C-alpha cells in the first residue's frame, strides 16, 4: 500500500551510511587458517591473535568545537557515545565503527597502518537538552596509527540545502549514457526563499587538479575566502520570480526529459523544475533553464555534469562578471565564489575497492577548507551508486517538525550528512 505523503515528502526508510563489515584482520585470520589446512611446505605461520609489540594503537578524542555548548551538555571532557568510523583508503571494506567512552575517548589496536578517513557522529534526541533535536559531526583524513583530536560541529540553523545528487557519470558497461543526472534543493527553513540569481557549480577539489600536488593547490583548495570554480550555472529570475516555500523540494535536471526511454531503469525528469542549459542538449520548453555563466563550460553540450565525485556548491546571487579570478597551476583561469555568498557545499568521491589500488594525489589532499565541509562523502563498490541506476546520494532526515515537515541534517560534514538510498526526484524520503 502506498505510503502517505506529507508536504513535498513521502515516508519511507532510508538506508544507513556505514553498516558493519568484516575487518581486514579477520579476513587475514581466515586466510591463515586456509594456509594451515593446505600445510604448504616452507611457510611459517603466525597466530592471528599474536600481539604486535610495536603497535602503539590509535587513540581518538572527540570533542565539540563549541566549548560553551559542550559545557551545557555536560561534555566538557569529550563527547560520550559518539560513533567513530575508520576507513583505510585502499581497503575493500566499509568503515569499521567504534564508540567513544564517557570522556569522548576510544582506543583501537591492530589497525593496519595507512591513510584513513576518520569521522565522528552523534545525534542528540529531543528531550536530552533544552534545544531541539540536533546532530554533531566532523572528520578528516590522516595517517594511522596515531593519537588524534577530532572536533565535531553542531547542525546548522535552517538554510537552503542540497538534498539529493543523482550521478550521471558512472554507468553499467552496457549503457553509454550520461545525461540523466539531477540534483535537488530543499528549503530547510521556516520562511520562503527565492532562487533568483543563485549560482550552482563545482569547485576546485578532486576535479580539475589530478596532476598537481596538495602543496601546489593548497592556497586554492583550502582558501578560507571562498571556493574557486571554473564551471557554474545561474538560476533565472529578477528577484522574486522563483519562490521556494518551507519544506519544498526543487529538482534540477541536467536534461529535463524522460530518460527511461533510453533505459527503463533511468529516471523520468520531464517534470523537473529546472534544467541546466547546454549547447547541444534537448531543450524542454516547459522547464526554465539555468544558463552557463562560468569561465568554462562542458564541451559535450549538455550543461555541467552531475556526479558524486565533485565539490558542488550553492551560492547566493552574485554578478558573475564581478568575481575575482586567478590563473591556477595548470594555466586555467578560475573564479572565486566569496565565502559569505556560499550557502551549501557537498563533496565526495567513489572509492576503488581493488586492494591493489594506490592513492592518487588528490585523494590525499583536503579538497576544501573546513569551514565549507570537513570530510567528503565516499561510496564503496560493489554496492555503490556506480553500478545501480536506482540509487542516489541523499541528505539524512534529522527530525520532523510538529507539522510533519522534515528537517534535514547539516553538520558541514558530507561523510555523515549523506547516505545512499533509492532516488526520489521531487520528494524527501524518510
Task: Give the tags.
Immunoglobulin-like, mainly beta, 430 residues, single chain, seven-stranded mixed β-sheet, 33% strand
Put the structure in a nutshell.
The protein is mainly beta. It has helices at 24-38, 67-72, 214-221, 361-364, 414-417; strands at 9-10, 58-64, 83-88, 96-99, 105-108, 114-124, 134-144, 147-154, 160-166, 182-187, 193-194, 199-203, 226-234, 243-244, 249-253, 274-276, 289-290, 311-315, 325-328, 332-338, 342-351, 377-380, 391-395, 397-400, 406-408, 418-422, 428-429.
Task: Please characterize this protein's 3D structure.
Helix 4 links the parallel strand 21 (342-351) and strand 22 (377-380). 9% of the residues lie in helices and 33% in strands. The longest helix is centred in the N-terminal third of the chain and has 15 residues, at 24-38. The chain has helices spanning 24-38, 67-72, 214-221, 361-364, 414-417; strands at residues 9-10, 58-64, 83-88, 96-99, 105-108, 114-124, 134-144, 147-154, 160-166, 182-187, 193-194, 199-203, 226-234, 243-244, 249-253, 274-276, 289-290, 311-315, 325-328, 332-338, 342-351, 377-380, 391-395, 397-400, 406-408, 418-422, 428-429. It has 5 helices and 27 strands. The chain is globular. The protein has 2 domains: 51-154, Immunoglobulin-like (Sandwich), CATH 2.60.40; 157-429, no CATH class.
Low-confidence parts, pLDDT < 50 over ≥5 residues?
1-51, 381-386
Our Rg estimate from Cα atoms comes to 23 Å
Report the biggest beta sheet as strand number plus sense, adding barrel if it closes.
7 strands, mixed
Span from first to last CA? 16 Å
Strand-residue proportion: 25-35%
Number of helices: 5
Count of all domains: 2
Structural class: mainly beta
Instruction: Tell me the quaternary state.
Output: single chain
Coarse morphology: globular
Find the count of extended strands (DSSP E, 2+ residues).
27
Report mean pLDDT, rounded to a whole number: 81
Strand order in the largest sheet: 4-3-6-7-8-2-5
Roughly what percent helix? under 10%
Amino acid at each position: 500500500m502506498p505510503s502517505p505523503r506529507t508536504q513535498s515528502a513521502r515516508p519511507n526508510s532510508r538506508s544507513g551510511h556505514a553498516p558493519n563489515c568484516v575487518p581486514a584482520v579477520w579476513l587475514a585470520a581466515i586466510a591463515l587458517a586456509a594456509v594451515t589446512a593446505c600445510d604448504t611446505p616452507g611457510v611459517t605461520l603466525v597466530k592471528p591473535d599474536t600481539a604486535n609489540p610495536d603497535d602503539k594503537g590509535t587513540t581518538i578524542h572527540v570533542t565539540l568545537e563549541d566549548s560553551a555548548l559542550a559545557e551545557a551538555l555536560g561534555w566538557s571532557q569529550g563527547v560520550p557515545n559518539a560513533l567513530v568510523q575508520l576507513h583505510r583508503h585502499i581497503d575493500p571494506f566499509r568503515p569499521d565503527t567504534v564508540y567513544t567512552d564517557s570522556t569522548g575517548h576510544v582506543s583501537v589496536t591492530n589497525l593496519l597502518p595507512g591513510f584513513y578517513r576518520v569521522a565522528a557522529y552523534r545525534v542528540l534526541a529531543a528531550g536530552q537538552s533544552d534545544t531541539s533535536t540536533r546532530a554533531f559531526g566532523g572528520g578528516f583524513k590522516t595517517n594511522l596509527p596515531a593519537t588524534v583530536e577530532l572536533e565535531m560541529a553542531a547542525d546548522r540553523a535552517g538554510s537552503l540545502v542540497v538534498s539529493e545528487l543523482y550521478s550521471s557519470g558512472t554507468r553499467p558497461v552496457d549503457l553509454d549514457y550520461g545525461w540523466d543526472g539531477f540534483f535537488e534543493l530543499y528549503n530547510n527553513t521556516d520562511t520562503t526563499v527565492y532562487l533568483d540569481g543563485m549560482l550552482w557549480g563545482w569547485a576546485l577539489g578532486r576535479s580539475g587538479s589530478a596532476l598537481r600536488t596538495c602543496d601546489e593547490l593548497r592556497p586554492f583548495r583550502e582558501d578560507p575566502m571562498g571556493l574557486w570554480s571554473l564551471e557554474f550555472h545561474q538560476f533565472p529570475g529578477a528577484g522574486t520570480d522563483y519562490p521556494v516555500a518551507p519544506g519544498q523540494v526543487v529538482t534540477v535536471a541536467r536534461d529535463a526529459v524522460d530518460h527511461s526511454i533510453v533505459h527503463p531503469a533511468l529516471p523520468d525528469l520531464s517534470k523537473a523544475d529546472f534544467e541546466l542549459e547546454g549547447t547541444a542538449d534537448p531543450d524542454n520548453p516547459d522547464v526554465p533553464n539555468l544558463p552557463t555563466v562560468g569561465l568554462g563550460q562542458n564541451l559535450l553540450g549538455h550543461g555541467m555534469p552531475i556526479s558524486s565525485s565533485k565539490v558542488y556548491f550553492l551560492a547566493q546571487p552574485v554578478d558573475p562578471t564581478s568575481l575575482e579570478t586567478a590563473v591556477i597551476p595548470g594555466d586555467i583561469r578560475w573564479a572565486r565564489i566569496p565565502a559569505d555568498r556560499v550557502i551549501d557545499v557537498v563533496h565526495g568521491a567513489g572509492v576503488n575497492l581493488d586492494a591493489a589500488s594506490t592513492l592518487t594525489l588528490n585523494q590525499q589532499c583536503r579538497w576544501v577548507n573546513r569551514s565549507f565541509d570537513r570530510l567528503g562523502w565516499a561510496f564503496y563498490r560493489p554496492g555503490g551508486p556506480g553500478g545501480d541506476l536506482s540509487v542516489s546520494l541523499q541528505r539524512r532526515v534529522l527530525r520532523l517538525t510538529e507539522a510533519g515537515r522534515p528537517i534535514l541534517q547539516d553538520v558541514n560534514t558530507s561523510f555523515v550528512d549523506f547516505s545512499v538510498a533509492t532516488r526520489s526526484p521531487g520528494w524527501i524520503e524518510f
